[in-house]
Amino acid sequence: MTTPNEETSVTSDFVRSYVITGGRTLPSSDELALHTLVILAPERTLPLGAGPEVRAIWDLCSGGYLAVAEVAGHLGLPVGVTRLLLTDLLEQGYLLRRAEPPRAENVDRATLEKVLHGLQSLIG
Questions:
Q1: In whole angstroms, what is the distance from residue 48 CA to residue 21 CA?
Q2: Which of 14, 36, 40, 42 measures 20 to 30 Å from 91, CA to CA?
Q3: Pick from 116, 112, 31: which is nearest to 79 by CA?
Q4: Are the C-beta atoms of residues 38 and 64 closer than 8 Å to each other?
């Protein structure tokens, strides 16, 4: 802890989350899940006045689909901050998100046994 007269050194690598988000509240995890895939929208250019975080997202997502969690990991930012930045880019049309696959359905036991017997007959 520092005393009131003691100066502290601040590095440029450390920026508080509220500075990056502009003090806005973070979106809920329902809006953009960790496994949601995002990619740059075709034929879009980098937004004017984009900050370093948005530029980094731009570079990351230009290579193909990435999950929200992957983007956060590469940026070294909290997931909530990353969600907010990605949500902004999605709403402005700079990013696209891939639809989530449908949830798996339970299959009845008889069907699974038929598949098992079929595989056993093929293998020997």
A1: 17
A2: 14
A3: 31
A4: no
Which pair of structure tokens corresponds to residue 93?
């049309």
pLDDT in tens, 61-112: 888 899 999 999 998 888 888 888 898 888 888 999 887 767 788 889 999 9
Determine the Cα–Cα distance for residues 17 and 94; give it in Å rounded to an integer: 22
Secondary structure string (H, E, C) spanning the chain: CCCCCCCCCCCCCCCCHHHHHCCCCCCCCCCCCCCCEEEECCCCCCCCCCCHHHHHHHHHHCCCCEEHHHHHHHHCCCHHHHHHHHHHHHHCCCEEECCCCCCCCCCCHHHHHHHHHHHHHHHC
**23-63: per-residue pLDDT in tens?**
565 555 566 888 889 999 888 888 888 888 888 888 998 88
Query: Which region, left, alpha or beta, applies to residue 65 given φ > 0 means left and ψ of -120 to 50 means alpha?
Result: beta
Q: What does the alpha-carbon distance between residue 61 and residue 95 come to, in Å, rounded to a whole number?
A: 8
